[in-house]
Amino acid sequence: HVLAVLHYRRGLGWEGQALPDGVRCRISGDQPDGYEAVVPAGEPIPLVYVPAGPFLMGSRENDTAAWDDEKPQHMRTLPWYWIATTPTTVRQWQASGLPLHEQPTWSTPEHPVVNVSWHDAQAYCAWAGLCLPTEAEWEKAARGTDGRTYPWGEEPPGNRTLGAGPVVPLPPEQASPYGALGMSACVWQWCEDAYDAEAYRRQ
């Protein structure tokens, strides 16, 4: 499979509290303009904030487009966290100095990095002072709290690209409710936890 890395930082403090080490407020002009993770080399990684609370995870039993291991839909509650605004790009990966495996001939520095193993992803996160999201954390960041099919809602993709194009920039109409982008692109993205086909049935 073609794989991309998406990562985030768990930490303490956001809503009126001190920011955790490695996270800072991004300023545009004299106004706050989001948050970013400071990494050892290269440009900081933009982050979006996902607030604490419950969300609908998984797919409805009557959803014929869903796999059995995505059912039943159930309620999960998570603490708050940050997640990277986009999948990790080739440019961001190269800043780490980690080996870059073969990329597609059409790939550019702004495309998602692919051909990445789970261990590669963990090595990148260790370098950046970040960690992979769990499946639940990734899904909440992608679809919000209401169990929507796509990050933007129920409307079929239409002109919204689901391809593996550049992620910088991505059109804002593709954003999830929290502002995460590239959550519906056709690159696989690693999570921290191991696959379990029966996990949803045990919720």
Short structural description:
The protein is of the alpha+beta class and 203 residues long. The chain has helices spanning 90-96, 118-128, 135-143, and strands at 3-4, 23-28, 31-37, 45-50, 53-57, 74-78, 81-84, 188-189.
Count of strand segments:
8
Number of helices: 3
Report the C-alpha radius of gyration, rounded: 17 Å
Low-pLDDT residue spans: 1-14
Let me know the average pLDDT: 82
> What order do the strands of the largest sheet run in, or round the barrel if closed?
2-3-4-7
Major sheet summary line: 4 strands, antiparallel
User: What structural class do you assign from the helix and strand content?
Assistant: alpha+beta
Order of helices and strands: EEEEEEEHHHE
How large a portion of the residues is in β-strands, by DSSP E?
15-25%
Helix content: 10-25%
Terminal-residue CA separation: 28 Å
